[in-house]
Specification:
The chain is α/β, with parallel strands linked by helices. It is built from 13 helices and eight strands. Strands 3-2-1-4-5-6-7-8 form an eight-stranded mixed beta sheet, with helices on both faces.
């Protein structure tokens, strides 16, 4: 990597939308306040990014990034329609454009050469790293390391569940530590084989929407029984948050459920309604369905959701 240890690394966010901005904000916060990231379980890599470039397509987007990062005292350059300069300056590049745009972005004049010897981290939903590698190099030997990572929308509050696909061949120890460090700035990180990324997309990428539906339904029930909407929503959210914290602390969901289900009580009565409605099976099926759809979208299939089932 190009920079000396004393100078730190240069990191470019190639297409810096909402998720990219959240990741960058997490990094900047960690640099300014080293103890600000509670999810970090790994040691700091030998070099961390200290200089940043972001690329966008409009002055409006550029202003949004500047406003979002205005509270940080950091070396951040926002470029409009100048991807090549940003890649040339970088040691590590985070690819965060719209998935359908990646060929236009990476296929632009000079980008392939500018990536030589660098690490490209893709957060594009439904786009395997092999697909990017084949687009850039075809049957040639890849000249940059490509890593796929799947953060989720909770990155905005630094509670992401990021899944990193283990590349083949494996990253060097330094590269691996750097990727881990980047995504630990915004939440928890797990590493899985590339074949697990579609299911990970369904569970972690689509999961917040599934959770939000359940949360909303609980709040609706409480409102129907007389609670004010704002309080009901906050109470449901905190209940979900507390339950998640107990599970992350080692409590098994089944044992947790059993602990609050006293014989003849209100909890077991409510659980019976959920079981009669096949809620468990429907939620599990939603994850399975989202996995299949994600796999098809990754192959470029259009209108997947409208073709999955034959009308009865």
């Amino acid at each position: 990597m190009a920079q000396s240890k004393q100078e730190g690394l240069t990191m470019t966010f190639l297409g810096c939308g909402t998720l990219g901005t959240a990741i960058l904000a997490g990094i900047l916060s960690s640099i300014q306040t080293p103890d600000s990231t509670a999810n970090s379980t790994s040691s700091e890599p030998p070099q961390i990014p200290t200089r940043f470039f972001t690329t966008v397509r409009s002055s409006t987007s550029a202003q949004k990034i500047k406003t979002a990062l205005s509270s940080y005292d950091a070396d951040v350059t926002v470029l409009t329609n100048d991807n090549l300069k940003a890649v040339q300056e970088a040691d590590v590049i985070l690819l965060g454009c719209k998935p359908y745009m990646f060929k236009d972005v990476l296929g632009a004049d000079g980008i392939k050469d500018a990536l030589k010897g660098k690490m490209l981290v893709s957060i594009l939903a439904g786009v395997p790293s092999k697909q990017i590698e084949e687009f850039l190099y075809g049957s040639e030997e890849p000249l940059c390391r490509i890593v796929r990572a799947m953060p989720n929308t909770a990155s905005l509050v630094r509670e992401s569940m990021t899944v990193i696909a283990n590349p083949e061949p494996a990253l060097s120890e330094t590269q691996s530590a750097l990727v881990q460090w980047i995504f630990e700035r915004i939440g928890r990180v797990v590493r899985l084989p590339p074949a697990a990324m579609d299911a990970s997309t369904a569970l972690c990428g689509s999961g917040p929407a599934f959770m939000a539906l359940v949360l909303e339904a609980m709040a609706d029930g409480a409102v129907a029984m007389g609670l004010p909407r704002a309080e009901a929503q906050m109470m449901a959210a905190q209940t979900m948050r507390g339950t998640a914290a107990l599970v992350l602390n080692g409590e098994h969901p089944a044992l947790l459920r059993d602990k609050v289900s006293t014989p003849g009580g209100c909890t077991i009565g409510g659980l019976m309604v959920l079981e009669e409605g096949a809620v468990r099976g429907k939620v599990a099926r939603a994850v399975r369905e989202a996995t299949v759809v994600a796999s098809q979208l990754g192959k470029g299939v259009q209108g997947v959701n409208g073709t999955r089932f034959v009308p009865q």
